Amino acid sequence: xxxxxxxxxxxxxxxxxxxxxxxxxxxxxxxxxxxxxxxxxxxxxxxxxxxxxxxxxxxxxxxxxxxxxxxxxxxxxxxxxxxxxxxxxxxxxxxxxxxxxxxxxxxxxxxxxxxxxxxxxxxxxxxxxxxxxxxxxxxxxxxxxxxxxxxxxxxxxxxxxxxxxxxxxxxxxxxxxxxxxxxxxxxxxxxxxxxxxxxxxxxxxxxxxxxxxxxxxxxxxxxxxxxxxxxxxxxxxxxxxxxxxxxxxxxxxxxxxxxxxxxxxxxxxxxxxxxxxxxxxxxxxxxxxxxxxxxxxxxxxxxxxxxxxxxxxxxxxxxxxxxxxxxxxxxxxxxxxxxxxxxxxxxxxxxxxxxxxxxxxxxxxxxxxxxxxxxxxxxxxxxxxxxxxxxxxxxxxxxxxxxxxxxxxxxxxxxxxxxxxxxxxxxxxxxxxxxxxxxxxxxxxxxxxxxxxxxxxxxxxxxxxxxxxxxxxxxxxxxxxxxxx
Length: 485
Prior knowledge:
Blueprint: H1 5-29, E1 63-68, H2 69-73, E2 79-81, E3 97-98, E4 102-111, E5 116-126, E6 132-137, E7 141-144, E8 152-157, E9 165-170, E10 176-180, E11 185-191, E12 194-201, E13 206-213, E14 216-225, E15 240-241, E16 247-251, E17 254-258, E18 265-269, E19 274-281, E20 285-291, E21 298-304, E22 310-314, E23 324-327, E24 334-336, E25 339-341, E26 348-351, E27 376-381, E28 383-388, E29 393-398, E30 404-409, E31 415-420, E32 423-428, E33 431-436, E34 442-447, E35 462-465, E36 470-473, E37 477-481
């Protein structure tokens, strides 16, 4: 059964608030690069060309195929959207779920009155050729898991549907298997072919998580968690993750960890010990940032292992926002504040002042309660890439020793969107750059207007990595980029 009318209205209001806040945050991000966590081009209103626009390098990747939303859908104002964010309310963000040889995206028509998508269709795109393999009309979606479970892309309908449903999409042909449910689903993830569903009533502190398969989502286990928040806090944010073999729930400033195999809670942090963020990393170690509940000021961070044991703590008021976190193995330390800690024992291995930004001088334009930030923007193999936006420097550290590999003055604010070995690909404004993180050498540069400019600026363009290639998307176009030479 669906939500009752009063709760349905609360849910709708919460989603409208979430979408409105998301738009406001995008505007702020354009002025505060340290807050960027996605592969988006924040606040961009169109390509900017001028005397400072670089030329494409001869060995930069070229467009191998493209797909047009209007032509695919046969409607002039059709838009591509990321199915992970659903269609009940328009996220404004194009994207896809990577299913190997197929990229699954969503296409529809923006309804200006409801702020949702109408006549939504899932589209399977051949990763190698860009040809459309299948199209499947779909109900209004609340969201989808961003990875597959038992070979299926799994989604759920919006909570205000009269008959809430879990949908398993065969990415080979687009066929859908529907499983009715009476759950009010808040989040859905997949890991190692298992499905995980978070559902319940946040305002009653009644949250449940289930582990199973799409056709039987609580087949393995079900577990209740005493977490709660207002409805508006339960949408539009990061609620559940199952990365690196560790489950993490975040709701209303509270956090809980759980075992993926059994659902058993491993640790909890509840108010007034507010959690700003909690992310699992290599080895199942969760890095939790705690903050002042009223001001939002970062107070420090801690590393928690799979069993809930606190490995290490740092009182340094700086948090690292990693666009990519791919350490070579579990012998690479985890970063907290200005230090690097052993992932198994919690031993402090080294410290570096480079891990904390130059203190910001408070001005009327200053943003946020903290005067310093963590500088790590990516961990790749045995290297940490650092950016001090206030000090205008870019640095690479050897994670085993803490020694500088290189250092240069830079006002770059690009986001790392992909990596292969020691090569990191960053997106800055409308330009892709490839960088050797160990040497600091720029390998190639690619202005995106040289690929395609479709003037689709009603949404935020993205560059994302599939398993085999980089994919550039606007609301109107998908472009598959080839390998660099």
